[in-house]
Amino acid sequence: MKFLHAAAASLCMIALAGTARAFELHGDRSSPFDLEVKGTLPGVPPGTSRYVRWGDLRALPVTKLTLAGEFLKGPEVLTVVFLSDLMKELAVTPDTDLLLATCDDGYVGIYLGDFIAKYRPFLVLEIDGKGPKDWPPKGLDFNPAPYVITVSAELVPASAQFMDIEHKKPWAVTTIEVASHSDKFKGFYSGKWASLSPSAQAGRQIWVNSCASCHSGPEGTFGGTKAQRPFQVLAAYAAYDRDFFEKYVRDPKSLVASAKMEAHPHYTDANFADLIAFITADGK
Q1: What share of the chain is helix, strand, coil (3-state, %, to 5)?
Q2: CA-based Rg of the chain, rounded to a whole angstrom?
Q3: Rounded Cα–Cα distance for residues 168 and 170 (Å)
Q4: How many angstroms separate the CA atoms of 222 and 188, rounded?
Q5: What is the pTM of this model?
Q6: CATH for 185-279, among 2.60.40.420, 3.90.25.10, 1.10.10.10, 3.30.390.10?
Q7: Confidence band, pLDDT 50/70/90 cuts, at residue 284
């Protein structure tokens, strides 16, 4: 899973269809540092991509944040664009309340509108004055380019209490998709998942905020492709081998030495009860 481990450390989305963009959306990629954008973009045919140059992003009104431990030990000055502002600059339609950030390995950061408004995630354009073509910063043993999205407990202390907040810190982001939550995750609210128990509804939130970053959902619902593990397989484990399912999620390498999934030792028995209720479509 590609996300940034932070040591420590605008607004609600305002979406008006037809608003002029501050930058041009190009039909082709000119460099590895172009950001691919797609989704419900006015004037862009469905299913097609456009590209934003790094220089156009840097020319937007940006914010400089001095934060400790986001990339390296000690304070760093980050030049950022808040996702709420980026949504406005993309002139998204009023029903667009979801942003998906896909990494080069298929991992996806998932940002619902209320999360964006409350926790203020941001796109990193520069680290100590240097853009992604000059990354990684000295002392960092991996390259987070071309883009990183992260949240900071220094900026919004409440983010430290958000379950699986590390899932909201993807690096090597290449693509941003803007969409409607009800459209993208409609499989979570239809068929067997149309009428869920309160526990299963809580599990659905865990899935959307965490599991969907790597796994597709029921009925072909959107999810990241990194795991390459069908939802049906996970559902079978959850329903028929709960002990294996819980042990794997808590500590994958204890069962499969080559496992790439990150451990989730903080999941409580109640969290698992909710998650399994959702996966197995426990009804009201």
Answers
A1: 35, 20, 45
A2: 19
A3: 6
A4: 10
A5: 0.90
A6: 2.60.40.420
A7: low
